[in-house]
Each structure stands twice: as structure tokens, then as C-alpha cells.
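Notes, p. 3: input format for complexes.
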Amino acid sequence: MSTAAQDAPEYAIDIRGLRKVYAAQGGEPEKEALKGVDLAIPHGSIFGLLGPNGAGKSTLINILAGLVNKTSGSVRIWGFDQDANPRMSRASIGVVPQELHLDPFFTPREAMEIQAGLYGVKSGDRRTESLLTALGLGDKMDVGARALSGGMKRRLLIGKALAHSPPVLILDEPTAGVDIDLRRQLWDYVRKLNESGVTIILTTHYLEEAEEMCDRIAIINHGTVIANEPKTALLDRLDRKTVTIVPITSLTTVPNTLATQAGIQTAITTDGALAITYSRREASLGTLLELTHSAGIEIRDVTTSEAGLERVFLDLVAEAK
Ligand code: ADP
Ligand code: MG
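Output follows (321 residues plus adenosine-5'-diphosphate):
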């Protein structure tokens, strides 16, 4: 899809020491939304920027899009420094903003044509009809934007972001307020784009969403990146579960066979039960119960607590504070 992908730089986006301080206004004090962010996003990936509301995701995206001025730091987009080479860096990304802003007076076809014109795409190179069709808006090309549902507006915004065939597409909270069916379609389309060589960056505050879509995930909180790793590595860290085994006779120490078992952590609770924390990828509850049994512990009761993904995410955020 994008010719630029052939001579792709190692990093689609390379951010160093990025700070953003919003000035005080209307009684609100000044706000440091980004506190020196370093973030390198490999080309070809579907990269998730995950964080709770107010973390700084949109600020970062809007700086990439050229909509918000950074306070300090450097941003390279597709190898082009944003300050030294603003035109090329801007031409290298398409951004789908979080807000569904569309001019109500233009039809999707007109909106696409205007956007292509803004980026200097020649008439013969425009992809208005093929993009709108691929986005399921083939029968809406000539209706007023007012007649579009929220999901259709989102898709039109994706079309607009792709009008100049950028090698990098950024989606800010693309599934906020989007129903399940549309979400599916959207993800299918995003995957296809990625397979055709487009680097995808999406922000979300849902871990499940990042888990489903992304091959690499960074977590941002209070303007600081607290994790940035391949999805599998992150999930391994998050995929921990605790089982509490209540023995007939209270324990004071962890039996050796359990204490030395690789891949699990053991502890004695205040009421003499055995708490084992393990990764579901590495151990099963059955194995742990067998181990406990063969250590000579008679089991009265077993309870498991599985941190929901959101819960675990909050723990990770708290851990980084
Ligand atoms: P996210 O997209 O992760 O929810 P934002 O980047 O929108 O986070 O916001 C990060 C912080 O910056 C928040 O505390 C928010 O209130 C503040 N903020 C965002 N935009 C502005 C603005 N235009 N003026 C002042 N503060 C802002
Ligand atoms: Mg946001």
C-alpha cells in the first residue's frame, strides 16, 4: 500500500525526552501531561499505547499529529525530525482523532477529496472510492455527514487519515462508543492494513483490546511510560494467579518441595494457610494441589483469586508509582 514501507526506518516513531506542560488557564493550574517520555515504535508493528484516562495518550498522539506543540524533547516520524522536517514527518502519518469531528456540510466523498487535496495527492492517485468501499461506506459516499452514525463517522475519519497513504496510522481510542460488530470490522480492517505494511499505533484504556490487537504494548500513566514490551512478555507478567490452600493443620513454614519449586512463589498467610502465586502459562492448579498433597499437607479448602485484567493493570500502575 505504501511505497515508503520499502525503505522503512527501524522505528516508525522515535520519541526522546518528550515533555508537555499545558499552561494554567481558567483557574486550572498548569499541567505536566508528559514527563519526559522515551518511546521507540518499531516499523511494521501494531503497537498499543495503553493507559487510564488522563494518562497523556491523546497529548502524545496530538503532538505526533502536529495538533499540540510539545514543550521539549524530540520526535522523529518515519525517520524525519518533526522540527527539522515538518512536511515529511507530517506526510508520514495519518491520525484518527479521539473526537468525532467532521464538517457536517461535506459528504464522505467530498471530505476525502478535500483531505487528499490538502496533502497534495493528485486526482489520479486518489483512493476516495476504494477507501470508502473498503471501510463499508460504499453506499454512503454522497450523503451528508449528519446522516452518518457514530460508527460510520469513525470509519470516515479512518478513510481521511489514509487519504495520503501514510506508512503510519495512529488511532486514538478507536473503539470508544463502537458496538461489537463494528469493532470486529474495524480490527479486521486494521489487521489488513498492517499486513499491507502500515505500522499501526492505537491507544486504549482497555487491556483486553491491546491484548487482542497489538504485538507490542506500552503502558503510560501520569505522563510516564511504565512498561514497553512485546505483548507476550507483558501478559506473562500480568498472567499471575494466587491459590490459597487451607490445610487441616495450620502451617508455620512452607514445605521444602514447594519452596524450591521453580516458577511459583509461596507464602504462609497469617492464619496458617499456604498461598501460592503462579503463572497460568507455567503451572496448573492440579499440579500445585498434587505438589501440596505430596508434601504431606492435608487440604481442608482451596480458594483461588484471579486478578481480572483491569485489576492487574491497576496493580502494575500502582507498582510503578
Ligand atoms: P488521555 O488521552 O490518556 O486520557 P490526555 O492526554 O487527554 O490523556 O490528558 C492528559 C492530562 O492533560 C490530563 O490531566 C488532562 O486533563 C490534561 N490536558 C489534556 N488536554 C489539555 C488541554 N488542552 N489543556 C490543559 N490540560 C489538558
Ligand atoms: Mg485520550
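Residues 238-320 form a domain with the Alpha-Beta Plaits fold (CATH 3.30.70).
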